[in-house]
Amino acid sequence: MSKPRIRWAAGLAGLASSLALAFAAPQPAQAQKVLRVVPHADLKVLDGYQTTATITGMHMISVYDTLFAWDNKLNVQPQMVERHTVSPDNLKYTFTLRPGLKWHDGTAVTTKDIVPSLKRLFARETVAKVAQPYIGSIDPVDDKTFTITLKEPFCCLTLMMPGTSTAYGGMYREKEAMIDPNTPITETIGSGPFKFNKAEWVPGAKVIYDKNTDYVPRSEPPSGIAGGKVVKVDRVEYKVIADAATAFTALGAGEVDLLDQPALDLIPTVEKNPDVVIGNITMLENYGGLRPNVLHPPFNNPKARQALALMVDQTEYAQAAYGDKKYWRTCMSMMVCGGPYGSEAGGDPYRKQDLAKARQLLKESGYNGEKIVVIGAADIASLNALTLMTIENLKKIGANVEPVIADWGSIVTRRSKMDAPDKGGWHIFHTTFGGAGGSNPLTSLPVGTNCDKAWFGWPCDAQAEEIRAKFAKEPNVEKQKVLADELQKRLWEVIPFVPLAQYTQPVPHRKNVTGLLLAPIQVFWNMDKS
User: Fold this and answer.
1) Is-contact 522 281, C-beta < 8 A?
2) Structural domains in the chain, sorted by start
3) Who has the most CB within 10 Å: 11, 50, 351, 457?
């Protein structure tokens, strides 16, 4: 009889305990740290191997980890790689992955994923494919070790592996890595410090990145996009606000925490707000560029491209696009003044605007009043200013201009088309380039002149490519600098693009946001919000 009473007493105690818990005051859930960001553009492309748009690069670097990464001195550091060795003849590289790497689906990262990811990277990614001619094979040794065997020595294999400074050489799962390099990947399972919340993605309005709680950061301090990627917020929420003034008002009111690449002319509206800080992430100044399409007349003729260079006054463009002089400076270098290979060699003939000579050269190129299609982004203030300036200058030198103004996402799509301008293609567009990637002849997007393998605009010049090939095989830095000068002189003869001054990009943010890093692109690890 005693045992049933004990069970009954225990049951009463359990019921009392349950009732006490049920009627106790609810405990508040710990509030999530949400970093609210107004991005410079809407995210439209998820696969960084299909575009060099910076907004996609920001997506890639958040979701996907890379084998190597650039620190804030532009040195390449291991990221997913724990260690690597190079054979005495500089032809065989052996890489070992660091422990703790997992995909967002919980499975381990192995060389079954890395080998096809690298093959896809070298076949498609704009910068990394410079290494493709030198690669003999990429082979797994075991789950954690793989090798790359070169056909001949190449100075910059690890430099190529992080990819473009705006796209990044993210590693994919085997499933996605095996997809044809020319087919966009739409799945978003990476191994990086953030997970893309595809379920809450509202194109044109909202993008969400959640902290990857399983991510194991490196032990080194963060530097650039290298080192330990320690995430200190629970999620990053992009609020797409197309109107720049509205975005600044939202920042001043505390409705958002940070503006990514905002219009520089509106920064004075928040400079005196005690709750706003004008931050900076610039490692090396960015620069604007006018890109002609060499596939179609008149810009398949060097004289027409020289006319573009002569119609440009960098000061006018910089004042229109970047505002206050404290944010910009003129520079005739094709590879960034202040960078390791920065030089203005060859640029003197174009240092001063000469509209009369530009008009003459355009006519000598065979141009006879045909429409010149200039595509431009209305939703990015600096690019819109550059576009409008060029439209006016083209008219001054006798061009018949057809402007096509749209949102940046649409321009990114159209600029990839090789079709004739009257069939959906284009003659000219404007963009800005990161100084970090643009500072090296092998990583700069606009200086490549390897024809259909070149960046949009597809310039084609065997002499310039021969110099770049010599640079790639030259291990001596001082001799590389001589080659870089030689390359610059040749580029000013063929003009694959026209540089439009250099600028720094302030990052206005609320004062309770800390931990911004100097980096080639806006990153959100190490950032905290109190």
Assistant:
1) yes
2) 34-194 (3.90.76.10), 206-212+233-283+505-529 (3.40.190.10), 286-503 (3.10.105.10)
3) 457
Ranges 52-56, 76-80, 208-212, 273-277: which has the least confidence: 52-56
112: buried, middle or exposed (CB in 10 Å: 19+, 13-18, 0-12)? Answer: middle
Q: Determine the Cα angle at 434 with ends 430 and 435, to 5°.
A: 120
Tell me, rounded to whole angstroms, the distance of Cα 79 from its chain centroid: 18
* Separation of alpha carbons 474 and 296, rounded Å: 35
CB 472 within 8 A of CB 154: yes
Asked whether the predicted pLDDT for residue 445 surpasses 60, the reply is yes
- Percent of the chain as helix, strand, coil, to the nearest 5: 35, 20, 45
pLDDT, mean of residues 519-528: 95
Contact 69, 226 (CB under 8 A): yes
Checking 31-35 for CB contacts under 8 A at 24+ apart, the result is: 32/234, 32/235, 33/232, 33/233, 33/234, 33/235, 33/528, 33/529, 34/233, 34/234, 34/235, 34/236, 34/237, 34/529, 35/233, 35/235, 35/236, 35/237, 35/257, 35/258, 35/513, 35/524, 35/527, 35/529
Q: Which residue has the higher pLDDT, 14 or 475?
A: 475
pTM of the entire predicted model: 0.84
Residues in the chain: 530
The predicted pLDDT at position 20 comes to 41
Residue with tokens 């305990």: 17
Q: Is 117 helix (H, G, I), strand (E, B) or coil?
A: helix
Collapsing DSSP to helix, strand or coil, 14 comes out as helix
| pLDDT category of residue 12 using cuts at 50, 70 and 90 | very low
At residue 40 the predicted structure's pLDDT band, cuts being 50, 70 and 90, is very high
- DSSP states of 378-421: SSSHHHHHHHHHHHHHHHHTT-EEEEEEE-HHHHHHHHT--S-G
User: Quick one: tokens of 163?
Assistant: 């990819």
CB 409 within 8 A of CB 375: no
Tokens 């000579």 correspond to 357
Q: What is the mean pLDDT of residues 90-109?
A: 97
Question: What are the φ and ψ backbone dihedral angles of 477, each rounded to 5 degrees?
Answer: -65, -40
Q: Which uninterrupted H or E stretch holds 38? A: strand 34-38
pLDDT digits (tens, 9 = 90+) for 280-289: 998 889 999 9
Asked whether the predicted pLDDT for residue 17 surpasses 50, the reply is: no
pLDDT of residue 18: 40
Residue type, 4: P
**3 state SS of 268:** helix
Structure tokens at 64: 């996907």
- pLDDT more than 70, % of the chain: 94
Average pLDDT taken over every residue of the chain? 92
Q: Is 87 helix (H, G, I), strand (E, B) or coil?
A: coil
CA distances from 393 to 141, 217, 494 (A): 58, 50, 20
Per-residue confidence band for 197, with pLDDT thresholds at 50, 70 and 90: very high
* Amino acid symbol at 44: K
